[in-house]
Design brief:
three-stranded mixed β-sheet; two-stranded antiparallel sheet; elongated; CND1/NCAPD3; NCAPD3; histone binding; cell division; 5 strands; mainly alpha
Length: 1406
């Protein structure tokens, strides 16, 4: 078909010329309708007509180009059209009609396809030589045809992605409101919902897609022949169009970027788009540098997975598989361009990398993908260019924005996975220092451990642990050097002999680059550095932020696993302690870390012990998920590895570990027995102990590790119905006849015997009872075995008949009591009994007597009690009573020292206490004696046991012992730390179970324990109060707060407070009166206030006004020496920052940057609610202050002035602190006392000036050498980065600093503020780290004098963040202020200070 026939369907001859002229006059910006008849006929045009015309034009264009190349004569398209009377102007106008119709949102499939086909035809015409001469080219129409794809392709897929958002990392509304406003996708979605939705079938979409392919092919043909050198805007538009098409459809297989001759061989639209971008980088379309800048700028947002329009901020895309695939293709294309264009593209690769870093967001998945992109792109760099980027990254890692510092750590981790570059490849020796992995670890990664942001700290520590898992030898060596100074020599020697030639080469490279941030010249300094680093890591494990603690745990476990630091108990106990962390996530992390360490070091006994100390107590954790995790760990390590034992069978490492852990539980870790029992209680409910497990367990009772087997058997025997009793009885017989059975094993066997007693026949029981009695009567057993044996005896005699059981106990336990009584009588009543005293035997008889007496109270007679009593007092006092028949006429008043050893007397107290538990009359008799012993006793063990006995008696005889609680609590100030700790624990248990109430002075004695001189006791008291007692009584602190003021100052003149009775001795012991104890008192006040709720703080202020200040204002309390101290302390308490309401004092959005963005976004609604709450609470607080406090303050001030009291200073200080938030409303608050208002205003202004002067002094002080390497990089000193222009792709520039000179502190600040308001900008510019020529002060920043103009520019392609004129990697900056000769130093300002009272008087005279 010839060209003219193909054009017939457009009916160009029938188109009115006036319509054509009007379309051209409108410059194709509006759609002008044709007559109804012609318009309707054009609407029904099919795709075949457009295709025929396209093929004809394509053939003519090919013939014309071929003939032009061979200098042959071929009639051009334009000549053919002119000869046949076809108007090119009309043709273009009609094609624009289809294009404009296809762009409408409501366009149907046919209109969209026709619009795309017409646009393809126009672009094809434009690419034929002579198009400009024939006036085919129009810039608006060209841009519209090129970009019609974005309007014709259905956009409803964006809505589906929007609905899927909650399933991604942006779940649960974590995108902030400001982002939502600026997100173009969301704006498009909202508009789309207003219009009528159009639904397209798969066949319709394929038609549109084919038309898009024709259009893109036409655009590529146009770029092959039509130069855009003089049309930069069109080139920019084409770049934007192709970048949009990169995600048009998925690419099957790998995308190819090689230059192609035949466009039709390109398989997908994205491949065509990449080819188009490559064409735009050719010289015919303008300066290649500008073209590369445009292309890289557009690819930047593809790599960042962002959607960037012409205006507004870029919006994040959901990192789906298609988005990630497009990103990977874009990175590969950049690498292809760099490889092809080499030196021409390298500067823009540097800029691209800098922008990837600079525009990175905080979301973890985006950071991860961004860091991978940086790693892939840097692999295309030569070593010298790579070193320049690392130098830039070094400065970038200290940027003021937290997300930049965070991302620099991610980039470092990716770069560490790449092969290390050799310094020989870098010609510049200074840049060569940036190549080793050691520099990345020590100068970029490890320095972030001291970052201001906990998020960055935690991430850096977490990555540090990952470094040890990398295969690079130099990476692990660098980490070793940080924490273990002796590791370098040892590893080198071993590796030289064992590693291959390549490894030796790596070691050589490492030795030749000994680069560190701080040069160390001696091994002692290196050792000190390593110790400091380990100490810092251990402190980070106890950081206040949970994410820092978790990351520090991961770093610590990595160092321990790889033997970087020794597995000492100090390091391991830190891990165990974190299993009891307040944060649930940290507890789980600690459990996981301990499990990893145990798997890595199963033979280390210290690691085994640490694992037990951490995991076993976690089974009783308050959080159920932690319990489950601990139980899973115990099950996996202990229970699941129990296999049948055979002497011929070899036990693998896992089984050996199991039995080693069980042996530790039997020996060093016996204190974990209760937690371990709790685990078996839970497991028994889950029916975890099968007969096979029991059989396997019993098979180990004859092995060397039998102790562990009996431990497990004692825990599981009660949960099993069928047991091999024969083997258990054989073990019992062996234990009775053998003397080498360990104590713990004996106890466990006795426990098993007691548990199976119900399943034994009577003959067997009688035989066991007989053996037990014989065994006990030898008194050769340890105290633990005696207790277990008596308990087993009780279980053997247990039956359903209570009387029968008691008769059994009276018989056998009574026999033991008689034997012990006879022994004691022989010792005590004999004149020479003490001479032949066997201390151990005496203790065992006393212990047996106490344990047995609990089961047969009727067999305990007066003689037995007196014999035990004689152990504690002078024997001559009781001999007559013991030998006579009359009862004692004189009761015992106190214990008296005798010739018996202290250990015997201590056990005698315990035995006497057990006797009292069964006889109330003995309690009445001996409680005063116990109380007296607490006061006057000198033996620590005796007094400690008395505390235990009295607290145990309180459980059974609460009403009787309640009177003696003050005597017990007085031990909280005992001279011996062990007694103070024991008393604290016992009283806490009684308070928890409500056997004791918060009455009298008990609360205040607990408060004194808070400031105990031994930190461990103070910490224990804090734990007891906060985690055990406060939860039970949340109002406990606020109820006693005001009374604390009076009690600790020993002031009893108030009608209500401090009226409970206590002895003078106790009053003196617990008094914190006086200036020497002020610090302790305020530590208590702060502790209480820190754990108040806002409601309690608000109420306590009102109560202080009513109960304290009002009493002084009304002169109910005299202003004597003691009361003045009370009033002064009250004002100081009211001035404490802990007294401020948290809802008012916490700044809105204050900690936002400290937390990860995910948490930040989740808390946005909470932050808004807090802001509203802050406003309401502030108003309520203000009203209460005006109505309740101000009148009292005015009255008190007047009274204090009359008395000339020094407390007036404290009152003014309190007002100054309180009125900081209301400094502009002083006159309103104190309208009743104008003089007070004036004085207060003057004080506030004076304090504000002093603060400003101090701040300026701090700013101007030379702190260069003292700064820690945090994020305060001088080249990035601004808190907010300068926003990039929409189409400016250059190196990111920081905001230029505008720092006030130090001298402004001594000038009028109001004048400075007025100049700023008028828009007058200071010409004083601080240049930090500017390189100066030789002879000038090096490494200084100059604040230029006033009146000097400086214009600074950066070379193209160089960064303000990184440049050779930037800061060097080591050292810090200092500031030098230079003044011109003409500028005189201003003198000190003369203060014009007048008393407010004098001002008032002068105004009254006038």
């Amino acid at each position: 078909m010839d060209l003219i026939s193909a054009l017939q369907f457009l009916r160009l001859n029938e188109i009115p010329k006036a319509w054509v002229d009007e379309v051209w006059d409108l410059e194709f910006t509006e759609r002008k309708q044709l007559d109804d008849t012609i318009g309707e006929e054009l609407v029904v045009i099919g795709n075949r007509d457009f295709n025929n015309l396209y093929q004809c034009l394509l053939a003519h264009a090919a013939d014309q180009q071929q003939s032009a190349g061979s200098d042959g004569a071929s009639q051009s398209v334009w000549a053919t059209l002119g000869e046949n009377g076809v108007s090119v102007k009309t043709l273009v106008a009609v094609l624009s009609l289809f294009v404009l119709a296809g762009k409408v949102k409501a366009a149907n499939v046919q209109q969209r396809v026709s619009g795309l086909r017409a646009a393809a035809l126009y672009l094809l015409l434009l690419g034929i030589p002579g198009s400009i001469a024939n006036k085919v080219f129009h810039e608006v129409l060209m841009d519209m045809c090129s970009d019609i794809t974005s309007q014709c392709w259905p956009q409803d897929s964006g809505k589906k992605r929007k609905k899927d958002v909650p399933k991604s990392s942006q779940a649960e509304g974590k995108r902030s409101k400001p982002q939502r406003k600026d997100t173009p996708e969301m704006e498009v979605d909202e508009e789309g919902e207003e219009d009528e939705e159009l639904h397209f079938s798969g066949q319709d979409l394929m038609k549109i897609r084919d038309a898009v392919v024709y259009l893109v092919q036409s655009l590529l043909r146009l770029l092959q022949t039509f130069p855009l050198k003089d049309r930069p805007q069109s080139a920019s538009n084409c770049t934007q169009i192709f970048s949009k098409l990169l995600s048009f459809e998925p690419v099957v297989g790998e995308a190819t970027f090689a230059a192609v001759q035949d466009i039709t061989k390109l398989r997908s639209v994205p491949e065509m788009a990449y080819y188009g971008l490559r064409l735009l980088c050719s010289p015919k379309h303008g300066d290649q540098k500008e073209s590369l800048r445009r292309v890289f700028h557009r690819l930047l947002y593809v790599i960042l997975m962002m959607n960037k329009n012409n205006t507004g901020k870029p919006s994040l895309l959901i990192p789906s598989q298609s988005v990630l695939s497009t990103r990977n293709q874009a990175i590969s294309f950049v690498c292809h361009l760099v490889e092809e264009l080499k030196e021409l593209a390298l500067p823009f690769l540097q800029i691209l990398l800098q922008h990837i870093c600079y525009q990175m967001v905080e979301k973890s998945d985006f950071r991860s993908h961004g860091a991978q992109a940086v790693g892939m792109l840097t692999s295309q760099m030569a070593s010298q260019d790579y070193a320049r980027f690392i130098k830039w990254l070094f400065n970038f890692s200290r940027h003021s924005k937290m997300v930049h510092r965070l991302f620099s750590v991610d980039v470092v981790m990716v770069l560490l996975e790449q092969p290390e570059r050799s310094s020989e490849d870098c010609q510049d020796p200074e840049l060569a220092n940036f190549l080793p992995h050691k520099f990345l670890i020590q100068n970029l990664l490890f320095t972030r451990r001291m970052d201001d942001s906990p998020t960055v700290q935690g991430h850096a520590l977490s990555c540090l642990a990952q470094c040890l898992e990398l295969p690079s030898f130099n990476v692990t060596r660098a980490v070793h050097n940080l924490f273990s100074p002796t590791a370098t020599q040892t590893v080198l020697e071993s590796e030289i002999t064992e590693e291959s030639h390549s490894s030796q080469h790596t070691q050589k490279t490492y030795r030749t680059l000994p680069f560190r941030t701080v040069e160390i010249s001696s091994t002692d300094s290196s050792s000190l550095d390593a110790k400091e680093n380990v100490a810092l890591l251990l402190r980070r494990v106890k950081d206040s932020k949970a994410n820092v603690r978790k990351s520090a745990l991961q770093a610590l476990i990595g160092l321990l696993k790889h033997d970087v630091i020794p597995a000492s108990w100090e390091n391991l106990s830190t891990l165990s302690e974190r299993c009891r962390d307040p944060a649930v996530s940290v507890k789980k992390k600690a459990l996981q870390c301990l499990g990893e360490l145990l798997a890595a070091k199963p033979e280390c006994s210290a690691v085994q012990k640490a694992w037990l100390q951490g995991v076993v107590p976690a089974v009783v954790d308050s959080e159920s998920s932690v319990q489950v995790k601990a139980l899973e760990a115990l099950d996996q390590v202990l229970l699941s590895r129990i296999k049948p034992y055979s002497a011929d069978r070899y036990m693998d490492a896992s089984q050996s570990l199991t039995w080693a852990l069980l042996d530790l539980l039997c020996q060093e870790c016996q204190n974990l027995s209760r937690y371990f029992s709790r685990a078996f209680t839970i497991w028994s409910k889950q029916n975890m102990f099968t007969p096979t497990f029991i059989t396997n367990l019993i098979s180990h009772t004859e092995a060397d590790h039998a102790a562990g087997a009996w431990l497990l058997l004692s825990k599981v025997v009660t949960s099993s119905s069928k047991l091999p009793y024969g083997k258990i009885l054989d073990a019992w017989n062996n234990m009775i006849t053998s003397k080498g059975v360990p104590v713990t094993t004996c106890c466990h066997i006795l426990c098993v015997m007691g548990d199976i007693a119900a399943h034994l026949n009577e003959d067997t029981k009688d035989r066991i009872v007989s053996d037990l009695m014989s065994w006990l009567k030898t008194f050769t057993l340890s105290l633990e075995v005696i207790s277990a044996a008596v308990e087993t005896l009780h279980q053997l005699g247990h039956s359903e008949d209570v009387k029968q059981t008691q008769a059994f106990l009276n018989q056998h336990c009574g026999e033991l009591v008689s034997v012990c009584e006879a022994y004691l009588a022989a010792i005590i009543l004999s004149e020479k009994g003490n001479e032949n005293l066997n201390e151990e035997l005496m203790i065992k008889h006393l212990h047996t007597l106490g344990v047995a007496s609990l089961h047969c109270p009727l067999k305990v007679g007066k003689r037995t009690v007196l014999l035990v009593e004689s152990v504690l007092t002078t024997q001559s006092d009781r001999v007559a009573e013991l030998q006579g028949e009359l009862p004692a006429s004189q009761p015992l008043s106190q214990f008296r020292a005798n010739s018996l050893p202290t250990r015997v007397r201590a056990h005698g107290v315990i035995t006497l206490g057990k006797l009292c538990l069964q006889h109330e009359e003995l309690v009445q008799k001996y409680l005063p004696v116990f109380a007296r012993e607490l006061e006057v006793g000198t033996e620590v063990a005796v007094r400690n046991n008395v505390v235990v006995i009295m607290c145990d008696l309180c459980v059974r005889y609460t009403n009787i012992v309640d009177h003696y609680i003050p005597n017990i609590s007085a031990c909280l100030q005992d001279n011996e730390a062990v007694i103070r700790e024991q008393t604290l624990i016992m009283l806490t248990n009684l308070l928890q179970e409500e056997f004791v109430k918060w009455k009298g002075s008990l609360f205040f004695r607990f408060m004194v324990a808070l400031v105990d001189p031994i930190p461990a006791i103070a910490s224990l008291c804090e734990y007891c109060l906060l985690h055990l007692l406060l939860k039970k009584n949340p109002e406990m602190f606020s109820m006693h707060f005001i009374e604390c003021i009076f009690h600790f100052n020993s002031y009893d003149q108030h009608k209500t407070y401090n009226k409970f009775t206590q002895s003078e001795r106790e009053r003196v012991k617990f008094s914190l009166k006086g200036a020497q104890h002020r610090e302790k008192r305020f530590r208590i006040y702060r502790f209480l206030l820190e754990h108040f709720t806002d409601a309690q703080r608000f109420n306590i202020v009102n109560k202080i006004n009513q109960s304290v200040l009002a009493c002084f204002a009304d002169e109910e309390l005299p202003l004597d020496a003691d009361s003045v101290e009370i009033l002064s302390e009250t004002f100081k308490i009211l001035s404490l920052k802990e007294m401020k309401l948290q809802a008012v004092s916490v700044p809105a959005g204050g900690p936002a940057e400290e937390e990860p963005e995910e948490e930040n976004m989740a808390n946005m609604a909470k932050a808004v609610l807090q802001a509203a709450q802050k406003k309401v609470v502030s108003q309520v607080q203000k009203k209460a202050f005006i109505e309740n406090t101000v009148p009292l303050i005015i009255g008190l001030k007047s009274l204090l002035e009359q008395k000339r009291s020094p407390v007036l200073r404290d009152l003014m200080a309190y007002l100054q602190v309180t009125m900081q938030d209301y400094r502009n409303e002083v006159k309103e608050f104190f309208s009743g006392d104008e003089q007070l208002a004036a004085e207060l205003e003057f004080a506030l202004k004076t304090a504000e000036r002093e603060r400003e002067v101090e701040q300026q002094i701090d700013i101007c002080s030379l702190e260069g050498d003292a700064r820690t390497p945090t994020a305060q990089a001088p080249v990035l000193g601004s808190s907010k980065s300068k926003p990039l222009l929409p189409f400016t792709f250059a190196t990111p520039q920081p905001r230029r600093p505008n720092v006030l000179s130090a001298r402004l502190a001594h000038t009028d600040r109001r004048a400075q503020r007025s100049r700023q308001e008028e828009g007058v900008q200071s010409k004083s510019i601080t240049l930090e780290r500017t390189v100066m020529p030789k002879g000038v002060v090096n490494d200084r920043a100059i604040s230029t004098p006033k009146g000097v103009n400086i214009n600074l520019t950066f070379d193209e392609g160089l960064s303000a963040i990184f440049s050779d004129q930037g800061r060097t990697p080591v050292g810090e900056t200092s500031v030098l202020h230079v003044r011109s000769n003409e500028q005189q130093a201003p003198g000190l300002r003369q203060w014009n200070v007048q008393s407010p009272l004098r001002q008032k008087r002068q105004s009254s005279k006038h």
